[in-house]
Design a protein that fits this description.
Layout: H1 8-31, H2 33-47, H3 53-64, H4 70-90, E1 104-107, H5 109-118, E2 123-126, H6 133-141, E3 146-149, H7 156-167, E4 173-174, H8 178-190, E5 194-198, E6 208-211, E7 214-217, H9 221-228, E8 233-241, E9 245-250, H10 262-283, H11 297-301
Parallel strand pairs: 1-9, 2-5, 2-8, 3-4, 3-5
Antiparallel strand pairs: 6-7, 8-9
């Protein structure tokens, strides 16, 4: 069992959290897709600005859009809470957000079919925009064999439920941990399976690149995999449309040149991914997941006092 090595108290807490998770999922499924999305959006639009995390959202927006008027920044901050709430609630009913549902419009589907038919793996990359579950749904729905990587939940009971929910609509999640996890990813690519990774979260190590004119560290994993297997980075993005609908776009692949300087090649790949994500965020800033601290502490410390 997941909690065998945990203390009795910790295991009890995990089980109570899992029960709450089950209740939430049950309520969202009872409401149905559109009402669940509206409920989640309305709840976080009200609750989010009252939390301490709202300060992080505002600080992130100040870094990304330093010339934005404070009133416009506050409106955007509130609007992004609604988008986050919608995406969270929609995860409970993702079996109703498949390609067959007609709610996901795919631009560049021919690219995905070409990957499927080639038998050669690629490294899918993207950022936390709109509802990122639609990216996994689109990859799987297009017939591409792919390991969808994710960060496992701290609560093992909740994590098992998340994996089961995704399996219900054909998404097999994989949470690589340590050397064994990395080897499994490599073995999968050697078998011709693609890999999908998010590349816009805070990373304490890795190459330093530029994001919205400020330094960030970003994970080198996707670029390393692409170079190792002589393949491309395949960027994907998603935009939320009215009526709980989405547009997923398979963009032009990113090819990383091999110059003989492996570290420099990796750094160029990381910057290319980061620049791609920045462009998508600038296009639809309300869609991005602004609640996490993306920049190093020194960037936040350098922010001038709010007037």
């Amino acid at each position: 069992m997941p909690g065998e090595r945990a203390s009795f108290k910790q295991d009890l807490i995990w089980r109570l959290e899992a029960a709450g998770f089950d209740a939430f999922i049950g309520l969202m499924r009872l409401l149905g897709l559109e009402r669940a999305s509206a409920f989640g959006g309305g709840l976080l639009r009200w609750l989010g600005p009252k939390t301490g995390t709202h300060r992080t959202v505002i600080r992130n927006l100040r870094i990304a859009f330093p010339d934005m008027e404070p009133a416009a920044r506050e409106r955007l901050a509130v609007d992004q809470w609604e988008q986050t709430g919608r995406a969270f609630a929609e995860t409970a009913v993702m079996d109703q957000l498949t390609l067959a549902s007609g709610r996901i419009e795919v631009v560049g589907l021919d690219r995905l079919h070409a990957i499927r038919d080639s038998g050669c793996p690629v490294v899918f990359v993207g950022g936390h925009l709109a509802n990122i579950e639609t990216l996994a749904v689109t990859i799987v729905g297009s017939g591409v064999l792919c390991q969808i990587t994710y960060r496992a939940a701290n609560n093992p009971y909740v994590d098992a439920r998340i994996v089961r929910l995704r399996a219900d609509y054909g998404v097999k999640l994989f949470a690589p941990k340590g050397g064994d996890g990395a080897r499994e990813l490599l073995n999968g690519m050697a078998r011709g399976e693609s890999v999908a990774l998010m590349n816009d979260q805070k990373f304490s190590e890795g190459p330093e690149v530029v994001f919205f004119g400020q330094p960030v560290n970003a994970a080198p994993g996707p670029s390393r995999l692409a170079l190792r297997y002589g393949t491309v980075l395949q960027p994907l993005s998603v935009t939320r449309l009215p009526g709980v609908r989405f547009r997923v776009t398979a963009h032009e692949p990113i090819e990383i040149e091999k110059t003989g300087d492996r570290q420099a090649d990796i750094a160029r790949g990381v910057q290319a991914i980061t620049s791609f994500i920045e462009k998508r965020v600038r296009e639809n800033p309300v869609d991005w997941f602004w609640v996490h601290k993306r920049w190093p502490d020194r960037v936040y410390a350098a922010l001038p006092p709010e007037t």
